[in-house]
């Protein structure tokens, strides 16, 4: 028990630069308190003390602002960072090393009892502030859920989900993010970076393509003009585009490149 608590404290010290000491984490971090109370509630729930498990869960919600159903399964080194207003449903499963921020809902879309209604998070998943993950599907190891995203379908390992409804951005390496002790992925606070916005990526691709086309057109007109001069012919129209005017750099700055 104490080894697991020590591991929980250490993971918070590693992921939160505001954490200054183990004593501060033990006394001032509601995410840690919520996890400890959940383990007690989950133990009661599994032993048939359903009401007691729900009551301990209710106390945890009152003191921490984090609502975790006692039936939910939570792995080791799970960090609820701030996490006020977070809700974790009965059949939800959270893998080892996950980080969950404030306002997150791991909810269900079915009213049928006894079914898998809530999501399963793999290892080292980051669920950003305000995200809603709804349904009994899986979110793969190392995946990231962007802030305020609404995820209603499975997310592959290493991928990023952003938007409403969430769009899936595959891993940049194009392969699953299997986490090993020798090669752990770099932790990404709040899940996503500017490079993970699919609309910005699409806009940058269009801008770069347009700039490339204008450059080619300018080169063609310059070549035609030189040929005309060599043959002493005036066959080049006055409005021929001999110079580039497309402001690719400026537009890229506007979309966040």
Task: Summarize the entry for a quick read.
The model is unreliable at 175-183 (pLDDT under 50). This protein is an alpha/beta fold.
Question: How would you characterize this protein structure?
Answer:
This protein is α/β, with parallel strands linked by helices and 257 residues long. It has two domains: 2-193, Hexapeptide repeat proteins (UDP N-Acetylglucosamine Acyltransferase, domain 1); 200-254. It is 36% helix and 13% strand. It contains six helices and 15 strands. The strands form three sheets. The chain has a six-stranded mixed β-sheet. A five-stranded parallel β-sheet has the order 1-4-7-10-13. It has a four-stranded parallel β-sheet with strand order 2-5-8-11. α3 (30-46) runs antiparallel to α4 (50-64). The two termini are 47 Å apart. Residues 175-183 have low confidence and may be disordered.
Secondary structure topology:
Blueprint: H1 2-15, H2 22-28, H3 30-46, H4 50-64, E1 67-68, E2 73-74, E3 79-80, E4 87-88, E5 93-94, E6 99-100, E7 105-107, E8 120-121, E9 126-127, E10 132-134, E11 138-139, E12 144-145, E13 150-151, E14 160-162, E15 167-169, H5 198-230, H6 248-254
Parallel strand pairs: 1-4, 2-5, 3-6, 4-7, 5-8, 6-9, 7-10, 8-11, 9-12, 10-13, 12-14
Antiparallel strand pairs: 14-15
Helix pairs in contact: 3-4
What is the CATH C level class of the largest domain, in words?
Answer: Mainly Beta
Mean pLDDT equals: 81
**Roughly how many Å is the radius of gyration?**
26 Å
- What strand line-up does the widest sheet have? 3-6-9-12-14-15
Major β-sheet, in short?
6 strands, mixed
Strand portion: 5-15%
Q: Structurally, how many domains make up the residues?
A: 2
Q: How many beta-strand segments?
A: 15
The CATH architecture of the largest domain is 3 Solenoid
Name the CATH superfamily classification of the largest domain.
Hexapeptide repeat proteins
Order of helices and strands: HHHHEEEEEEEEEEEEEEEHH
Uncertain regions: pLDDT < 50 for 5+ in a row?
175-183
Helix content: 25-40%
Name the overall outline. Answer: elongated
Catalytic activity: L-serine + acetyl-CoA = O-acetyl-L-serine + CoA
Protein name: serine O-acetyltransferase
Family: Belongs to the transferase hexapeptide repeat family.
EC number: 2.3.1.30
């Amino acid at each position: 028990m104490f080894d697991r608590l020590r591991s929980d404290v250490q993971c918070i010290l590693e992921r939160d630069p505001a954490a200054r000491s183990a004593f501060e984490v033990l006394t001032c971090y509601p995410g840690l308190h919520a996890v400890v109370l959940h383990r007690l509630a989950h133990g009661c729930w599994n032993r048939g003390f359903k009401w007691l498990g729900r009551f301990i869960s209710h106390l945890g919600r009152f003191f921490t602002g984090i609502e975790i159903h006692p039936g939910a399964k939570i792995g080791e080194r799970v960090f609820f960072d701030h996490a006020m207003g977070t809700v974790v449903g009965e059949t939800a499963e959270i893998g080892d090393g996950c980080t969950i921020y404030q306002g997150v809902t791991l909810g269900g879309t079915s009213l049928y009892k006894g079914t898998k209604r809530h999501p399963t998070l793999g290892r080292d998943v980051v669920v950003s502030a305000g995200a809603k993950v709804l349904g009994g599907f899986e979110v793969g190891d190392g995946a990231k859920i962007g802030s305020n995203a609404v995820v209603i379908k499975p997310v592959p390992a290493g991928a990023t989900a952003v938007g409403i409804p969430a769009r899936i951005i595959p891993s940049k390496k194009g392969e699953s993010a299997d986490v090993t002790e020798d090669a752990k992925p770099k932790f990404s606070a709040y899940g996503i970076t500017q490079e993970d916005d699919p609309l910005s990526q699409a806009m940058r691709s269009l801008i770069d393509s347009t700039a490339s086309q204008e450059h080619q057109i300018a080169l063609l007109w310059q070549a035609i003009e030189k040929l005309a001069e060599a043959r002493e012919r005036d066959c080049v129209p006055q409005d021929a585009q001999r110079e580039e005017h497309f402001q690719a750099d400026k537009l890229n700055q506007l979309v966040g490149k």
